[in-house]
What we know:
Layout: H1 3-23, H2 34-88, H3 95-117, H4 132-182, H5 186-221
Helix pairs in contact: 1-5, 2-3, 2-4
Amino acid sequence: MSIESASSFTSSNINDSFARLSSGSRINSAKDDAAGLAQATRLDSDIRANTVLARNAGDQIGVNNVANGYISGALDGVARARELVLQGGNGVSEPRQLQPEADSIVETVNDLSAQGLGEESVLAGLDLSGSVEDNLAALDSLQEKLLERAGQLGAETNGLESKISNYEISSINTSAAKSRISDTDYGATISELKKEQTLQQVQITLQKEKNEQAGAIIDQLI
């Protein structure tokens, strides 16, 4: 290899070292390490996939929390309706005076249940002048359904939170693996850079001497 070719090769190595130091990445192109680049790219894809999956799970948790809010409101309505049924059937209160509030609660509970359960008109109505037992049975049935759905949402949310944790752990481990493959070893790179710079200085000196010798020969021939 000529001094010119060797010098060009050394300059290229020095530029590569500076690129690694400035970018923090050992692999800045396929020529640095084709196999390593391919592996790092696959790991990066895995990290991105885990991020998307974790975000999707988080979005579903948000949806579940909203549904739980509707169910909680419906359960509060059921509790208040139970109080009105018992108050209307105590023989002292006038059911007709309590009926407007009961009707309003039925409407609200149906609206909230439609959002939380996805079912329309889960509570047909409450007639406070009618059977206390029938009214309580209807409320108990709805309460059981609401509590069952709340339990399902809670279990689903717990499962999603566990998945998010697994995705995060996987991303951390995968990022560490990618780092080992592609991150710059600053100590080794700086050492290599100094070696190449020293070599470059030697090559410059040799080239200078070669040029001087060529000039002296030309002077003798003139």
